[in-house]
Design brief:
heterodimer, A: mainly alpha, MetI-like fold, 2 domains, two-stranded antiparallel ribbon, 2 strands, B: alpha+beta, 20 strands
Chain lengths: 304, 372
């Protein structure tokens, strides 16, 4: 509308020009306010909290206690490493599962496309907690999946590679990684779907016409053109998976504690607020660092 | 580059049927090596399906495709030494121009890919944009990249699927001349699919006119134009005046007379199909003259419309039986007519052609306007 007004009144229309200049900022305002109240302020509070000393009963004093970061890392580095390894494996598995599925929905599903997409997001209709609890049933010892896995010696294999400790599937690294993969799979599928849906099938034909075998066509045309989706999907899976505290608690054991569970426990049970805040900050910084390296390495800027 | 023997492309009873209709009825066609061949027809006539079957992008329901002695019917697209210039160009957006052009050579492990690609880019006059992305180029330039990407592989057959359709008229004319030049320079077999009859006639050595999944006529442009064998071809390639007539018995070795609306008219015997009695007598508008020309073929009528277009003037002359004949007269100083004037229209006997009257006189005519 502002555009039209300028055109119709010609160049001598300072009021509408001024209006056009502040409109974008006015549109940004609600979002900025939201971010200030719900993101910037909590971050500042959290940062300040991490540098305070004291306890819940006597109150806290700001002492610029930076050594808490060193202590936190010293004490909890195994949980950090574990979190990133689990999240990394779950992201990889989700990518392997999601890519063919997203490709199918985008290029081959035809008129069933919307139905399949609804099925992909259907799990969101129930809560994250309920879905993870369901995995306790699915992987429990008296259910057929564990029996089958035992009969097919899958449990032996998992035990040999150290993903489980005994004959059951539940309460193991295996179960935690499965849970993470399952819970964040839709976040992988949807961005992949979006970028594969934009892929012009005529480019696939052109590659075939230019002597590329189906595998070469995938490697040289389909995969590079879907990279924006791959990057978005892996970030949307990896970041929440690395900070997750539900899967490790419900599906794991004491040896599979992830950093999210530690932060959860420090905040809500131990009530050591400075340590919990410091751990949260370390997690944040590590994730931002990894993501920046990853996005730069993927080299997708020119595709976006 | 593959060293398999090249040769003529032959289609033997090539057929494509879908569940509810047949896109291409059994088609037999031989396209000589090194020729510029056009498949011409309206949308939906089966020309693109035929092209896609040659490319390997569509599987025929019957028939064989051979290049020289090699039967390629059962090979996949990527195994065929055939390349396509797609209507949409289908350039890879994530690669530079030169990477696009090298794509085919790279897949075959060609060591000189870069040099060959640059050479072809020079040929299509795009050497200076080799390192740009396709989206940074104009439509005409993208078109030439698509051509270069196919040409560089020196395929046995190069297929062009309406390659100039997206360009504006002026650029299209330029590219027609350019394509013809390049084809003569590289000497590859080009098969050009188009619905533009003028484009086909300008560029091709021979043309197959297709309609409703069948080949109507095959020939060089002049023969198709001067001696169409069906009303569809007569109307689709240029304009035709078609007069309903009956063949009179007798005649000489060269000439036959036909009776149209109580007037006897002459037509060359070689332009008359054998064994037909009722015919459409056809004459091209530019073959008609205003005024007597001494021959036996003349009709009288009244000028109902005059439109002047610079090099020529087009008249619409109404015959006593209501039909309007189109006359196109060069503006070469010969006599002109005015609106409402009674005139004589005449033509030489060898300029007429006769077609079996069982056909629809309007076939193909309504399709020409759609495409411009």
């Amino acid at each position: 509308m502002a555009e039209t007004a300028v055109l119709s009144t010609g160049s001598a229309a300072p009021p509408s020009r001024r209006r056009r200049n502040w409109v974008p900022y006015a549109l940004l305002l609600p979002g900025i306010l939201w971010l200030i109240v719900f993101f910037v302020l909590p971050m500042v509070t959290l940062a300040s909290q991490s540098l305070q000393e004291g306890n819940v009963d006597d109150g806290y004093v700001f002492t610029a206690n930076f050594s808490i970061y060193v202590d936190a890392l010293k004490q909890y580095w195994p949980q950090f490493v574990r979190s990133f390894v689990y999240a990394g494996i779950a992201t990889g598995l989700a990518l392997l599962l999601a890519y063919p599925l997203a490709y199918f929905i985008a290029q081959k599903a035809g008129r069933h496309k919307n139905l399949v997409l609804v099925l992909v997001i259907a799990p969101f209709f129930t809560s994250f907690l309920i879905r993870t609890l369901a995995w306790r049933t699915i992987l429990s010892d008296d259910w057929f999946i564990t029996t089958w896995a035992q009969n097919l010696h899958i449990t032996d294999f998992l035990q040999a590679v150290g993903l489980t400790d005994n004959d059951s599937l539940l309460n193991s690294q295996f179960a935690v990684i499965m849970g993470l993969t399952y819970n964040f799979l839709p976040f992988m599928i949807l961005p992949l779907y979006t970028s594969l849906e934009r892929l012009d099938p005529r480019l696939i034909e052109a590659a075939g016409d230019l002597y590329a075998s189906p595998w070469q066509t995938f490697r040289k045309v389909t995969w590079p053109l879907s990279l924006p989706g791959v990057v978005a999907g892996t970030l949307l899976t990896f970041i929440p998976a690395a900070g997750d505290f539900i899967n490790a608690r419900l599906l794991g054991n004491t040896q599979t504690t992830m950093i999210g569970s530690v932060i959860d426990a420090q905040f809500l049970r131990v009530l050591d607020y400075p340590l919990a805040a410091a751990l949260s900050f370390i997690l944040l910084i590590l994730i931002v660092a990894m993501v920046s390296v990853y996005v730069r390495r993927a080299g997708t800027e020119e595709l976006l | 580059m593959s060293e398999q023997s090249k040769g003529d492309l032959s289609l033997v009873a090539l057929t494509k049927s879908f569940a509810t209709f047949t896109a291409v009825h059994p088609l037999d066609l031989t396209i000589p090596q090194g020729s510029f061949f056009a498949l011409l027809g309206p949308s939906g006539c089966g020309k693109t399906t035929t092209l896609r079957m040659i490319a390997g992008l569509e599987e025929p329901t019957g028939g064989r495709i051979r290049i020289g002695e090699t039967d390629i019917t059962d090979t996949k697209a990527y195994q065929r030494n055939v390349n396509t210039v797609f209507q949409s160009y289908a350039l890879f957006p994530h690669m530079t121009v030169v990477d696009n052009v090298m794509f085919g050579l790279r897949r075959r492990g060609d060591k000189d890919a870069k040099a060959k690609a640059n050479e072809v880019l020079e040929l299509v006059q795009l050497g200076q944009v080799a390192n740009k992305k396709p989206t940074q180029l104009s439509g005409g330039m993208q078109q030439r990249v698509a051509l270069a990407r196919a040409l560089v592989n020196r395929p046995d057959v190069l297929l062009l699927d309406e390659p100039l359709g997206a360009l504006d008229l002026k650029l299209r004319r330029q590219m027609q001349i350019e394509l013809k030049r390049i084809q003569q320079e590289v000497g590859l077999t080009f098969i050009h699919v188009t619905h533009d009859q003028e484009e086909a006639m300008t560029m091709a050595d021979s043309i197959a006119v297709m309609n409703a999944g069948r080949m109507e006529q095959l020939g060089d442009p002049a023969t198709l134009y001067e001696q169409p064998r069906s009303t569809f071809v007569a109307n689709f390639l240029g304009q035709s005046n078609l007069l309903r007539a009956r063949v009179n018995p007798g005649g000489t070795d060269d000439m036959v007379t036909v009776r149209a609306h109580d007037v006897d008219l002459e037509v060359s015997r070689e332009h008359l199909p054998d064994g037909v009695g009722d015919v459409w007598l056809g004459v091209r508008p530019e073959k008609l003259r205003l005024g007597e020309s001494g021959g036996p073929n003349h009709l009288r009528g009244i000028v109902r419309d005059v439109s002047f277009s610079g090099v020529a003037t087009q008249y619409s002359v109404e015959m006593p039986w209501g039909q309007e004949l189109i006359v196109i007269q060069q503006n070469d100083g010969s006599n002109r007519a005015t609106l409402g004037e009674a005139v004589t229209v005449s033509w030489a006997a060898q300029h007429g052609f006769a077609l079996d009257a069982s056909q629809d006189a309007e076939a193909g005519a309504e399709l020409v306007d759609d495409h411009g």
